[in-house]
Write a structure and sequence with these properties.
Length: about 120
């Protein structure tokens, strides 16, 4: 059995508003937003990590990035946004289904993580 929370959202077992969907990906709102607007874009195919992707999968990722850029104005992000992928433990990845954080709706400062 697949215990992945994002697979359950993709399958509809956990209901969630979809801000965008196609055969490859969905976009949902983050349940615990870290910016005025905080969405998650994720491939429907389950990859635990960016490092799990093959060359062919990476082409899919390119299309996902292009789709994010295309729909950003509809998400209220026409003035700019930041994309983040947390890969692995040092980055604090908590859900092991590859996803891209899309954050904006405000001016975003750029933290100096060395000082954290
Ligand atoms: P990570 O730390 O793995 O890069 O990010 C996981 C993100 O998923 C977190 O920002 C967290 O708030 C979000 N999240 C975790 N569980 C759920 C959920 O059930 N629904 C939604 N919409 N977001 C979730
Ligand atoms: Zn999954």
């Amino acid at each position: 059995m697949n215990d992945c929370v994002f697979c359950k959202i993709i399958d509809g077992a956990i209901p969630s508003k979809r801000y965008y969907e196609d055969e490859r990906m969905i976009v949902i709102a983050d349940i615990d937003p870290k910016a005025a607007k905080h969405y998650l874009a994720m491939p429907k195919k389950h990859y635990k990590l960016l490092s799990e992707m093959t060359e062919a999968d990476r082409n899919d990722l390119g299309v996902i990035f292009a789709t994010i850029a295309r729909i950003a104005p509809e998400l209220g992000l026409g003035n700019g946004y930041r994309l983040v992928i947390n890969q692995g433990d040092d980055a604090g990845q908590t859900v092991f289904h590859l996803h891209i954080h899309i954050m904006g709706g405000q001016v975003l400062d750029f933290p100096d993580l060395k000082k954290a």
